[in-house]
Design goal:
alpha+beta, about 270 residues, D-Maltodextrin-Binding Protein, domain 2, elongated, single chain, 3-stranded antiparallel sheet
């Protein structure tokens, strides 16, 4: 029975381009892909539900290996009649414009906003309602209750017609990373790391094999191809019929014009 390779991904990440490459390269290796909630993006690694997880940083890295893949710009999401509507879609919103708003998130998750917030500074910030997920947050935003500052991919995933978003200046970008249990870096994990890093199918990872107790560097696929091509050329040269000997007295090739008779060459 084939072993299933499991890939988890947090909301907002689209792993399709990598899973398609995997399916093309390893059609005989069964693949499972599933989405996680933010609170379990690394728990799925610790309890064995996933071999790798596409996560949104920061995470607790204890016992995990991880590589950063790309960054996400932050955007502010607000009701359609909010002041940010006056800002062009491709322009950024300053934090100063959002200082008097009510953030429908824990202020500590957006420390840049927390440090300029009027309600935090004055102690007038009211408790957050019990919001189960981002869809409910978006409902509150549409009703004009407050704003949210999110990675662009999440804002796009939960977008709706009665809210708008703009890039926000002065807030750190979030990062997407690939994580795996550090003590379980299997061949499949190595292969998937190569895929997300853009390694082509033709290139081979440097690996070590053991021959009679001696470690030997594994020959790269490109070197094998060159050696095989050389053998083909040599074999073709051996099979090629010998050229007929030139007849004496017959001159081939270019003939140099000369006014006098040519001297015979000594053989």
């Amino acid at each position: 029975m084939p072993v299933t390779f499991s890939i988890a991904f947090v909301a907002g990440v689209t792993p399709t381009k990598w899973t398609r490459i995997w399916a093309d390269r390893f059609p005989d290796r069964e693949l499972e892909v599933f989405r996680t909630d933010p609170g379990e993006q690394i728990e799925v690694l610790r309890d064995g539900r996933a071999n790798v997880s596409l996560v949104r940083l920061p995470i607790d890295r204890e016992g995990l290996g991880a590589i950063t893949l790309y960054s996400e710009i932050p955007v502010v999401v607000a009701a359609k009649d909010h002041a940010i509507a006056a800002v062009a879609e491709n322009d950024t919103v300053s934090l100063a414009l959002l200082a008097d708003d009510h953030l429908l998130q824990d202020p500590d998750t957006v420390p840049e906003w927390r440090d300029v917030s009027s309600e935090v500074r004055d102690g007038t910030r009211r408790a957050l309602p019990n919001l189960r997920d981002l869809d409910e947050v978006m409902e509150q935003i549409a009703a004009g209750v407050g704003i949210a500052i999110l990675p662009h991919s999440l804002a796009r995933l939960h977008s709706r017609k009665d809210v708008i978003s703009r890039p926000v200046d002065g807030v750190a970008e979030t990062q997407i990373a690939l994580a795996w249990p550090a003590d379980e870096k299997t061949e499949n994990v190595e292969e998937f790391i190569g895929i997300v890093r853009g390694r082509s199918a033709a290139s081979s990872r440097s690996a070590t094999v053991v021959v009679r107790g001696e470690p030997v560097k594994k020959e790269k696929a490109t070197a094998k191809a060159k050696a095989a091509a050389k053998l083909v050329r040599e074999e073709a040269a051996r099979k090629k019929p010998a050229q007929a000997k030139k007849k004496p007295g017959v001159i081939t090739g270019r003939v140099r014009s000369s006014g006098g008779p040519k001297k015979k060459r000594r053989s």
